[in-house]
Amino acid sequence: MPIRPQDLAQWWNRAPDGQVVVDEQGVILAVNRCVGEWFGVPAGALVDTPASDLFTPAARLLYLGLVGYRLAERGRVEEVHLELSLPSGQMLPVLCSARRIDYKGARLSLLGLMPIDRKHRLERELLEDREATDRLLAEKGAIIAELQSLQATLEARRQELEALNRRLDHEAMTDALTGLPNRRRFDRVLGGLLAQVDTDALGGGFTLALMDVDHFKAINDRFGHAAGDRVLETLARLLHDTLRGDDLAARVGGEEFVLLMPSTSPEDARRPLERLRTRVQQHQWQGIPVTLSIGLAGHRPGDSAAGLLERADRALYAAKQGGRNRIVVG
Predict the structure, then answer these.
(1) How far apart are CA 250 and CA 261, in angstroms?
(2) Beta-carbon count within 10 A of 249 CB
(3) Distance CA 88, CA 113 (A)
(4) Which residues form a coiled coil (predicted)?
């Protein structure tokens, strides 16, 4: 059976919950009989009054803020807890749902008000929670900005930590006195060279030079440890000046230094090391006699790090036994 429009209008007027039609300015265009009965006036008496006047001051803020915002953004609102301010001075808790309706070119709002069968105290607490939530929403921009600032701070701290780790890694691989790589760095590079030779990635093999300051203990005993440190620092600079592209010089003991020379035979390594030995001998050491003994060992197939170092050490020992201030190939 079809339902006539006029019958629908009567049913709307007799609905058991409140119905309010509001225009774009928030002014009431129509209410049903239920709303009029709540306020003790004919339904028509509420027409042309602001819809926000139906609510208590606290609920009015929530209606104008949350309900209005959601209608504008989403076109609908579901079950917002509000309180009607009745002429008797009492408050009537209601659930307000609303829909945005386009009617003859105008954007109207239909409010549905359903009474809540709960204690007023609980309803007020819920309204306070809603107000707190609304304040949090209003502060959303500030919170996001603060989070972005914290994120930027964390990123800066992360970069600082990475820089600190790099510095610590460098310090862990560097001799504090001379600034040259230390034994740990040397062992790592030597292992890499041996791996490259084993895979034919390093053409021509490499040479290891082990060198020692002659009579260094006597220098310390006679001239003092500060003078001995200056000798080691100066020797490190002279050694660094000898380096070619991929060479690595390191301090591996008190007065002991090592030089790794990739793609270099012992014969080819001897020429620059002879120049280094001569420079050390001829350098002005402020009255301190400083010379250098050097033992060379070229890589052989199947060499281990320990075996290569042992051959270089034997060559260095031979240089010492042969009168010092010389180079011996092992």
Answers:
(1) 12
(2) 23
(3) 19
(4) 144-171
pLDDT of 3-27, one tens digit each?
677 777 788 888 889 999 999 999 9
**Positions marked catalytic:** 255
What's the full length of the chain, in residues? 330
Model confidence, pTM: 0.52
What distance, in Å, lies between the first and last C-alpha atoms of the chain?
Answer: 114
Chain Cα centroid distance, residue 55: 49
Decide: helix, strand or coil at residue 273. helix
Burial class of residue 81, CB neighbours in 10 A (0-12, 13-18, 19+):
buried
Q: Measured between alpha carbons, how far is 217 from 177 in angstroms, rounded to an integer?
A: 17
Which one-letter DSSP state was computed for residue 181? Answer: B
- Among residues 184, 285, 279, 197, the alpha carbon closest in space to that of 238 is found at 279
Angle between the 140-172 and 120-138 helix axes, to the nearest 10 degrees? 60
